[in-house]
Amino acid sequence: MGDEPEEMLQIVDARGRFLRAASRAECHADAALIHRSVCVLLFNAKGELYLQRRAMAKDTYPGQRDLSATGHVRVGETEDEAAARELAEELGVWAEIRRVDTMLLRLPAETEVATIYCCSYNGAITPDPNELSGGAFHPPAQAIRLPDLTPYAAQILARLGYG
C-alpha cells in the first residue's frame, strides 16, 4: 500500500490502551504519540528468517533491511488483522500467524507498541515493489548483526533473544 500520510492510526498509552485516532503524518511528526504497530517474522523450514529490503521510496529507513512484514494498526482494525494484512500486502503470503510478544519501541522519530508475530512458510514470496525492493532468508543470529538493519528490527530481534 505504501506510505499514506493520512492513514488513520490508533494512539495508545504505554500499556497499549486506545486513547484516540491520529494520522500517520501526525504520529511521525511527534515521537510522544504512541501508536500500535505489528511485525511478522516469517521463517522457512530451515529456521531462517526472511528479511525484506525496504523500497527506496519509503519515508522511513529507505533501502534498509527490515523484518519480514511490518506496519501500523489502522483505526477499527485488530493487531491480528493488521499482521495478516501486512503479510499479504507486502509479501503476497497468506499463512497462519502466531502472536509471540508485545513491546514498547522507542525509535528516533516515533514510539510504537509493537505486537510481534511469527509464521512458518515455504511457498513463493511475491514482494510488493511499492513496499520493498526484495528480500532474502538469513539465520536469525546473523540477521541481527547486519549493518543496515532498521532500528525497529534490531530491537525486536534482541527482545526475542537473537542478539
Largest sheet: 4 strands, mixed
Oligomer: single chain
User: Any idea how many domains?
Assistant: 1
Please name the fourth-level CATH homologous superfamily.
Nucleoside Triphosphate Pyrophosphohydrolase
- Count of DSSP strands: 9
Features:
9 strands, alpha+beta, 4-stranded mixed beta sheet, 163 residues, Nucleoside Triphosphate Pyrophosphohydrolase
Summarize the structure.
With 163 residues, the chain is an alpha+beta fold. Helix content is 20%, strand content 36%.
Please characterize this protein's 3D structure:
The protein is of the alpha+beta class and 163 residues long. It is built from four helices and nine strands; from the N terminus they run ββαββββαβββαα. The chain has helices at residues 24-29, 79-91, 140-143, 151-159; strands at residues 8-12, 18-23, 34-43, 49-54, 65-66, 69-72, 98-106, 111-120, 132-138. The radius of gyration is 15 Å and the shape is globular.
Topology:
Elements: E1 8-12, E2 18-23, H1 24-29, E3 34-43, E4 49-54, E5 65-66, E6 69-72, H2 79-91, E7 98-106, E8 111-120, E9 132-138, H3 140-143, H4 151-159
Parallel strand pairs: 3-8
Antiparallel strand pairs: 1-2, 3-6, 4-5, 4-9, 7-8
